[in-house]
Amino acid sequence: CVAKNNAEDSALQTTIDWACGPGGADCGGIQQGGSCYDPLMIVKMASYVFNNYYLKNGLADEACNFSNNAAVTSLNPSQGTCKFPS
Questions:
Q1: Per-residue model confidence (pLDDT) at position 86
Q2: Is the CB of residue 54 less than 8 Å from the CB of residue 64?
Q3: Is 79 helix (H, G, I), strand (E, B) or coil?
Q4: Which residues form the X8 domain (predicted)?
């Protein structure tokens, strides 16, 4: 589950805030110093959070929507030291 490339940054930030708060996703990887922390690449950070939330919720289709800002992918979105759990 990753963020759509055409999603608005503000919408992604809102969904990150929700997923990392009430949604209960593990957002340690996108905190400052985390392996996926990159404030200039909000799509990458959102994808990390969305994937975490999706896995936490048993790969349920409805757990990868985020107001239509996310989509399921079969490709591994990990990049460099930013490793996505699977």
A1: 82
A2: yes
A3: strand
A4: 1-84
- Decide if 81 is inside a domain: no
> Does some domain include residue 22?
yes
Does position 21 have pLDDT exceeding 90, yes or no? yes
Parent domain of 31: 2-71
Q: Which two tokens stand for residue 40?
A: 């200039």
Sign of CA dihedral 24, 26, 27, 31: positive
For 71, list phi and psi in degrees, rounded to 5. -150, 150
Assess if residue 13 is contained within a domain: yes
According to DSSP, the β-strands at 2-3 and 70-71 are antiparallel
Polymer length in residues for the chain: 86
The string of pLDDT tens digits covering residues 24-73 is: 999 999 999 999 999 999 999 999 999 999 999 999 989 999 999 999 99
**7: in domain:** yes
